[in-house]
Amino acid sequence: MQLHVDISKTFRSAGRRFDLSVAFQADSQRVVIYGASGAGKSLTLKAIAGLITPDDGRISVDGADFFDSQTRLNLAPRQRKVAYVFQDYALFPHLTVRENIGFGLNRGWFNREARHSRADIDQWLDTLHIRNVADQYPTELSGGQRQRTALARALINRPTALLLDEPFAALDHSLRKLMRKELDQLQRALRIPLALITHDREDVEVFGDQVVHLRDGRVAAGLADALA
Ligand SMILES: Nc1ncnc2c1ncn2[C@@H]1O[C@H](COP(=O)(O)OP(=O)(O)OP(=O)(O)O)[C@@H](O)[C@H]1O
């Protein structure tokens, strides 16, 4: 994935001000955006997904412009064809696992024919090992099953890239290890470009083919210092 980000945005709320001014280029299948809490990681990933609009700058992925303040280009999130998985997975509590995944498909970015739905959902239930809980609701799932459901819902639209906001933060230590391994294998099997944000150095070790280190809303030099 070729990722070009050069954006700035000022956030103001309750008398506080946060200046995001992030510029980096990445050319790798696995990009990690690393930094302490409050560094601007989520804001940067959301800007790539189109969930927030920068004040200025440019974002392009694989040569396709997503945002360009000079030409007033700002593709809607669904036009970007990237999947964004929230830290808390944002599953619909009133829908089963199968319905959550199907929601992604039917309301999704590609609006595919309903006749494809059932087979596609079954395929992703199998790929993510959650067929046995397909009719259960999110509150009836383990943390790992919740994450697999969120991944299936994201992947069913066959996005061109997967953007993950702290994918393992909601999991306890041993489950984190397992799910990290699963995501590692899934990414290799699907060959889907992946960008994830984390403040966990183990994520950096596994997924950080390329690492962007953020500090106070900017790209910081010297990842070695950060990891020391
Ligand atoms: N809508 C907003 N208005 C004002 N400030 C905001 C807004 N959203 C985020 N911020 C501030 O911007 C800073 C960066 O937020 P961001 O969510 O990107 O951090 P992060 O690096 O992802 O942190 P964490 O690891 O804790 O999730 C924080 O100080 C946050 O309080």
Offer a concise description of the structure:
It comes from Chitiniphilus shinanonensis. By secondary structure, the chain is an alpha/beta fold.
Keywords:
single chain, 228 residues, alpha/beta, Rossmann fold, 2 domains, 6-stranded mixed β-sheet, 5-stranded antiparallel β-sheet, 8 helices, 29% strand, binds adenosine-5'-triphosphate
Descriptive report:
- By secondary structure, the protein is of the alpha/beta class.
- It has two domains: about 150 residues, 3-Layer(aba) Sandwich (Rossmann fold), CATH 3.40.50; about 70 residues, no CATH class.
- The chain is about 35% helix and about 30% strand.
- It is built from eight helices and eleven strands.
- A six-stranded mixed beta sheet has the order 7-8-9-3-10-11, sandwiched between helices. A five-stranded antiparallel beta sheet has the order 2-1-4-5-6, with helices on one face.
- Strand 4 and strand 5 form a beta hairpin.
- Helix 3 crosses helix 4 and helix 4 packs across helix 5.
- The longest helix has 18 residues.
- Adenosine-5'-triphosphate (ATP) binds next to strand 1 and helix 1.
- The site of adenosine-5'-triphosphate has 12 residues, from strand 1 and helix 1.
